């Protein structure tokens, strides 16, 4: 029974994501999802209380796919700039089928209480999966990143990735080539900037930046 329930849940999710790609987020209703999946509307709501929760499912699946293609792209790439390009480009690759409703996703995710807010508790699993991709990119780079940066850098890169994703959402150029140029230009700049952390005089600046980052992450309670 549990296996059948999970199969039905996955069917509803797969159908929803298919409709998101084909007709867009706004036009996809829970009734349309249920009809396409061959289940009752009540059954669809049993597994997903709203379309917001289905977007959360999309978020998780996209991160899982990103992890697979990023790992392949990182093979035999050692320099940090190249590894950042690989991770960022593959991130855009896996999101591309959903570009047409990206702005709808942003409108849904921006609310602090939204279940699909990428910074919210409900998104912990997907966020951790994405952070792991950036952690792999950093830890596998050669020459290695300054030791003082290794713990915090994956999260800082993930935050930058959120900015790239927002730029991509509103990028109307063909194939979102402007976003691709942004990635190709920014990755080497980031890598060169981080290499300065090993210079004694400049190192203090990085210490101050990391101190600020850690302070704003602290729970004010």
What does this structure look like?
By secondary structure, the chain is mostly helical. The protein has helices at 2-23, 30-37, 41-47, 51-74, 80-95, 102-109, 124-139, 147-150, 153-169, 177-195, 200-217. The mean pLDDT is 87. α5 runs antiparallel to α7 (124-139). It has eleven helices and no strands. The longest helix has 24 residues, at 51-74. It is elongated.
Briefly characterize the structure.
The protein is mainly α. The chain contains eleven helices and no strands. It holds the Pfam family TetR_N.
Terminal Cα separation, in Å?
44 Å
The pLDDT mean sits at 87
Q: Could you estimate the helical fraction of the residues in percent?
A: over 70%
Tally of DSSP β-strands: 0
Shape: elongated
- The number of helices is 11
Provide the gyration radius in Å. 20 Å
Proportion in β-strands:
under 5%
Low-confidence stretches: none
Order of helices and strands: HHHHHHHHHHH
Instruction: Describe the largest sheet.
Output: none
Structural class: mainly alpha
Spell out the blueprint of helices and strands.
Elements: H1 2-23, H2 30-37, H3 41-47, H4 51-74, H5 80-95, H6 102-109, H7 124-139, H8 147-150, H9 153-169, H10 177-195, H11 200-217
Helix pairs in contact: 1-2, 2-3, 4-5, 4-7, 5-7, 5-10, 7-9
